[in-house]
Write a structure and sequence with these properties.
Layout: H1 4-18, E1 24-26, H2 33-39, E2 44-50, E3 53-58, E4 63-67, E5 73-78, H3 80-86, E6 119-124, E7 128-133, E8 137-141, H4 143-151, H5 164-172, H6 178-181, H7 193-202, H8 216-236, E9 278-282, E10 285-289
Antiparallel strand pairs: 1-6, 2-3, 3-4, 4-8, 5-7, 6-7, 9-10
The protein binds a DNA duplex (13 and 13 nucleotides) through α7.
DNA sequence: GGAAAATGATTAT
DNA sequence: TAATCCTTTTCCG
């Protein structure tokens, strides 16, 4: 259940662990058998993320495009070498899982375990493996198709060279509510339901303000906040948007109940003003906000 | 054992 | 706006 920060962590994980390696690619579940056959035995050139899309580039010039959707997830496992290389950074969560300990902890790794459940794709290298379940999209693409897929997406705040001015243009020229625009991947690639609600709160913006009703300074501040808070998400492997001064518990790690201002907090008091956090549906997704702090 | 929910997106009506 | 797809986990009986 990932937003863009999870996908960037996955790209990093794949690069550090599988780049330059020849991979066995299979589809234990069978639904991706034909695609897997086109990639099987190829070497991974690079793993990149744009928004919520993950691209694995192989040296026969084909790309594997993966979109996890609501509940897609990767499992990783392998020997000591693999785990040493893949445990860089903070503990991972959300769209990823803990590394499987399938060598008995004694260096007796003998390959991946029998697949459990519906494994769409299994990628196996010499020292480790990855299993993908439940993705919305999993398809092989040519370079031209990959470029076309990229071209449909707005700027990704997690890319260092992202074009913030392009985001400002796309946001402030549209008449739909900013609560919808933030979820629109043509406007901004990578934000999902949690970051939408949290960033709007942090900026004290009503979800019903239209893009056109925002000035470019407000839009840029919104962008900068997304960059900051999603960057933290990449580092931590979870979404924490509350500032320390707004938490009762100042401990580390931040308790689950203190991580958000409004997301899934309907009926609870706003951390700033004490009013009840509200919830409604916007475009079939649950939207959380503070009616007092985020007025039109 | 079964239903519901979940950090998503596309397609049809 | 509604239906549909994909899978696991959690909660309820």
């Amino acid at each position: 259940m990932p937003e863009g920060h999870s996908i960037h962590r996955l790209a990093r994980q794949f690069t550090s662990v599988f780049a330059g390696q020849q991979l066995s690619v299979s589809s234990p579940q069978g639904r991706f058998a034909a695609g897997a056959a086109r990639l099987d035995g190829q070497t991974l050139v690079a793993a990149t993320a744009h928004g919520k899309q993950l691209f694995l580039e192989f040296d026969n010039e084909l790309f594997l495009r993966i979109h996890l959707g609501l509940y897609g997830a990767f499992d990783f496992g392998g020997d000591e070498t693999f785990r040493g290389a893949s445990s860089i950074g903070a503990p991972r969560r959300v769209g990823e899982r803990e590394l499987a300990d399938d060598d008995g902890g004694r260096g007796t790794y003998a390959g991946p375990p029998p697949p459990k459940g519906a494994v769409r794709v299994r990628l196996v290298a010499e020292h480790g493996w990855a299993d993908l379940r439940g993705p919305t999209a999993c398809e092989v693409m040519t370079p031209g198709e990959q470029r076309a897929a990229l071209a449909k997406l707005g700027p990704d705040p997690l890319q260092p060279n992202a074009d913030s001015e392009e985001f400002v243009r796309r946001l402030t020229t549209r008449g739909s509510p900013v609560g919808l625009l933030l979820m629109n991947q043509e406007v901004l690639a990578g934000v999902g339901n949690v970051y939408r609600a949290e960033v709007l709160f942090r900026q004290r913006l009503s979800p019903w303000r239209t893009g056109k009703a925002l000035c470019s300074e407000q839009a840029l501040e919104l962008w900068n906040d997304v960059v900051s808070v999603m960057g933290d998400g990449v580092a931590a492997g979870r979404i924490v948007t509350t500032r320390q001064e707004h938490r009762g518990d100042r401990g580390v790690p931040v308790p689950t109940g203190e991580a958000h201002y409004v997301y899934k907090r309907q009926g609870l008091p706003c951390r700033i003003c004490g009013c009840e956090v509200a919830m409604t549906e916007m475009a079939a997704r649950k939207l959380y906000w503070c009616p007092a702090c985020q007025q039109e």
